[in-house]
Design brief:
Elements: H1 3-24, H2 39-62, H3 65-112, H4 145-166, H5 173-199, H6 216-236, H7 241-250, H8 255-279, H9 285-313, H10 317-347
Helix pairs in contact: 1-8, 1-9, 2-4, 2-5, 2-6, 2-8, 3-7, 3-10, 4-5, 4-8, 7-8
Length: 362
């Protein structure tokens, strides 16, 4: 079965996300005096995304394993290719900035004959490059308690609803009422943030002047992308960071910020996915907990290494290439296991069609 592997992956993603969030907790934006995690962007996307996860997990009961495998392969191939092209585009921009920096230094040296100069920034938005290891402040000085509280409220509300569903008969009136209750919870928090961004009393700081007074079609698109990403994440068990990371890059978010923000959001989305799969009796607890622990350690070490490399070479595009490579390897690993399982079922003449949600035994 492909499901134990998928849920184990979700466990690893949860562990890795928590570890990475701890690492990024006090880091700053590479060019601005703000946190590296864009909390307002997470608050905009995450409520609808968690609603999508609930839809996706329900669909996972209906869809056959081979359908999930095919969707996984298609999604991962498309995402890895787009991330690779984005990385190449970012690399070229960084190269141009470095060349301009050298030319300016040579020009300044010719005019003034002095040797004490400031180089052009390595960042793509033209700001002054800062060490991303500069702390934001103490834990008690954290300024985003409201955003964190709202995200926690949505997470806990979805958790309570999922637990309540286990104690009701599938497809009963109570079951569907509980499912519908997830909509006002997610939609309410999303509308609060969306209205704030539209009217200007909320702001996505990393986008500067473009991060406030957002047009309605941008907010509608954000909700649709969040719902789609959550549904795909819940159905395929991939963690929404694989979808949200490339999406944030397409929005023009700096690679360091896109990675940190997507990972922070994935802490909520992957963990609620794990809970829902556990309630469906698809969670191999000891093995998944072991992988979660290993992934948390590996993610912390990896985050430290990539952060050093970005600061050393001045190329944030390295983060994008790592993302593309990780997605590509996941395509081979999960796709290979899924195809092998599918071939085995074909040989055994097992049923490979849609399942009945109402008859699923938890």
């Amino acid at each position: 079965m492909v499901w134990p592997i998928i849920v184990s992956v979700l466990g690893m993603l949860t562990g890795a996300a928590i570890s990475t969030v701890i690492f990024n907790w006090k880091l700053k934006h590479p060019t601005l005096d703000i946190p590296i995690i864009e909390y307002d962007l997470v608050l905009l996307m995450q409520p609808i995304l968690m609603l999508g996860i609930s839809i996706g997990v329900s669909l996972s009961v209906i869809f056959a394993d081979w359908m999930v495998t095919v969707l996984l392969i298609i999604l991962f191939i498309v995402t890895s290719i787009k991330a690779c092209f984005k990385g190449l585009e970012t690399w070229k921009k960084e190269t141009i900035l470095k060349e301009e920096s050298v030319k300016l230094l040579e020009s300044t040296a010719t005019c003034s004959g002095e040797g004490d100069y400031k180089s052009l920034p390595d960042s793509l938005d033209g700001g002054t490059q800062k060490e991303t290891t500069k702390p934001e402040g103490t834990f008690l000085g954290f300024r985003h308690w409201k955003e964190l509280g709202l995200l926690s409220f949505v997470w806990l509300a979805h958790l309570a609803i999922q637990i309540a569903k286990i104690h009701t008969a599938s497809c009963s009136i109570t079951y569907w009422i509980l499912n519908v209750l997830q909509i006002p919870v997610s939609l309410g928090v999303f509308l609060y943030q969306a209205i704030g961004l539209h009217q200007g009393w909320r702001v996505i700081s990393s986008k500067g002047d473009q991060g406030t007074h957002l047009p309605l079609y941008h907010l509608i698109l954000a909700s649709l992308c969040g719902l789609l990403a959550g549904t795909i994440g819940g159905l395929l068990g991939i963690g929404t960071g694989f979808v949200m990371g490339p999406l944030f890059l397409e929005l023009g978010i700096a690679p360091q910020v896109a990675s940190a923000t997507a990972t922070f959001g994935m802490t909520f989305s992957a963990s609620i996915s794990v809970v829902q799969y556990y309630l469906l009796n698809r969670f191999p607890v000891p093995y998944a907990l072991y992988l979660t622990f290993v992934a948390a350690i590996a993610a912390y070490i990896g985050q430290h290494i990539i952060n050093k490399l970005v600061n050393l070479f001045g190329r944030a595009s390295l983060i994008i290439f790592v993302l593309a490579f990780t997605i590509f390897v996941s395509t081979i690993a999960l796709g290979g296991v899924g195809i092998s399982d599918m071939i085995g079922k074909i040989k055994r003449n097992e049923y490979m069609g849609f399942e009945d949600l109402c008859n699923y035994d938890t």
